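Worked Example 4.2. Consider the chain below.
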Amino acid sequence: MGNFMSSDVLIVTNGTKESFPAIEQGAWLAETLGSTVTLLGVTEKLNPAAIDAAHPLEEVFEYAVGVFKAQGVDYKLEVRNGGAEKIVPQEAKQNESMVVLGPLGRPQIQRWVAGRSIRYFIEDIEKPLLYVQEVRLPVKRILISVGGLGYEVNAEHIAIQIAVKCQADVTLLHVVPPIDLDYPTAQAMSKNWQHLLETDTPVGRNMRTALENAQTAGLTAEVKVKHGNVIEEILAEVNDGNYDLLCMGSSYSVNSLRQMYSANVTAEIMERAHCPVMTARFKRKR
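Applying the procedure from the previous section yields the following structure tokens:
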């Protein structure tokens, strides 16, 4: 299992209070993974009349530096002017960073018109992404969503590394969607979903490997299989199980028809889950 040790955790803020949770959870992540932090302040609008006013990032930076010092992580601060959607993917690419961000606190009307920014970020950021709406610390329970196509392998490796560092319990969840497709694997899964772990389906094999990886790492791990709408079932499990972190894969780098579907599932869950959500792209073995 390849070690995911990011050289850097890139925490993004545009100065709004909505980004405070990302700073706290991001500092914890950096400390857990032994990484350094870059706090990237994005100034989206410069008001020429406000030359003497306090810079919108000033308060957040002051708060963040306190958090980093308390966590004992090395940090550097950067400020860039422009739109976050453009700047963040560029920075992440340059620094080989894991990206941590939260809602950017934009006016409701802007979100309706442009769609939520998280969808752009999932699309454009190739590195692992942690989306934080509210802080969950300490991290004691981690949910890993295991899809049928093995896209979560990278996310799962990172999740297991984090779990080992903070001795968290791991639950592997697979949701079997209601399907009416008439092909053998779909049939086998639909019929056997209650004991999917024993089946010789791709999901069954993925789940067994993931469980083995977690147990080999010395973790307490269990498997859950549910049947129904993927988004609703994952969110229900997040709430019922009171998890501190949800990890899921994304198929974005795989050129397939499932791209849009997968991204929307991830974005939808990020927007609605009450715990931090990490997504990492599928990486083909070179």
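Residues 202-216 form the longest helix (15 residues). The two ends are 14 Å apart (CA to CA). Compare this with Example 4.1 before moving on.
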